[in-house]
Amino acid sequence: MLFGVFAVHSPESCPMNNESSRKMFVQVQKKIEENSEKFKISKIIGFYMSVLEHEWIIILDADNSHDIEKLCIEVGISSVSTVKIVPINAYSDAIKKMQ
To answer: Which of 21, 60, 79, 91 is 20 to 30 Å from the Cα of 12, by its Cα?
Structure first.
């Protein structure tokens, strides 16, 4: 199942401006990969950021949102960001459901 993880932080806690956040951020993808099996993450589909919006968007293939929540705590994302976890579908899958 696909999930979008939307993590929003303040300008003050932005990794571009905050040394503590920067240390966590430069390691976050590696930590997600290292903890993927533990939290039943099948694949990191994409990891994007909007620097001026102070938002990260991570697309994950995972079993459920509760494990993603635990992952965000474990790897430190929730220490600097408000996190929203949203189930998402590929456009082609949504079209199939409509037909």
So the answer is: 60
Do 8 and 85 form a contact (C-beta atoms < 8 A)? Answer: no
| pTM for this predicted structure | 0.89
Low-confidence ranges of the chain (pLDDT < 70): none
Residue the block writes with tokens 């590696």: 30
H-only helix segments in 1-99 = 19-35, 65-75, 77-80, 91-98
Contact of 64 with 40, CB cutoff 8 Å: yes
- Dump the DSSP string for 13-41: G-TTT-HHHHHHHHHHHHHHHHHTTTTTE
